[in-house]
Write a structure and sequence with these properties.
alpha/beta, Nucleotidyltransferase, domain 5, five-stranded mixed β-sheet, two-stranded parallel ribbon, 3 helices, 7 strands, 19% strand, rod-shaped
Length: 133
Amino acid sequence: MFTFSRRSRPQVSVPLTSLIDVVFLLLVYFLLTSNFVTQEAFDIRLPQVDTETPAAEQLVVITLDRQGNFYIGDIRVDERLLAQQVRRGLAAADSQDVVIKADRDVRYDRVIAAMDIAKENGASRLHLAIEHK
């Protein structure tokens, strides 16, 4: 009669070495190209410090009040004219540094606008003013 013999199934093996290499390279790529930004989940206030830092002789200072108005010195400047004033101030200043003094309650986009205007008009470094305790 008939006798059935059990055949062994062929074993399938997936080569994982190359797959692991590809996954590792992707992981390294994303770690190197991503920005690690931490966002606070609560309202924060600007820090206060105890130490005094020496001030430079002549710096261009952009001040922003609570309403987001720009000032160079004591003079209120329209946003369109701020670029011109920054260029003039940097030409007369000892260094190409710009200090931005912004009120705690000013909208963040106004501070960024001041930073952009300063950088576009020749500022080499930007400084954000803080309050001493």
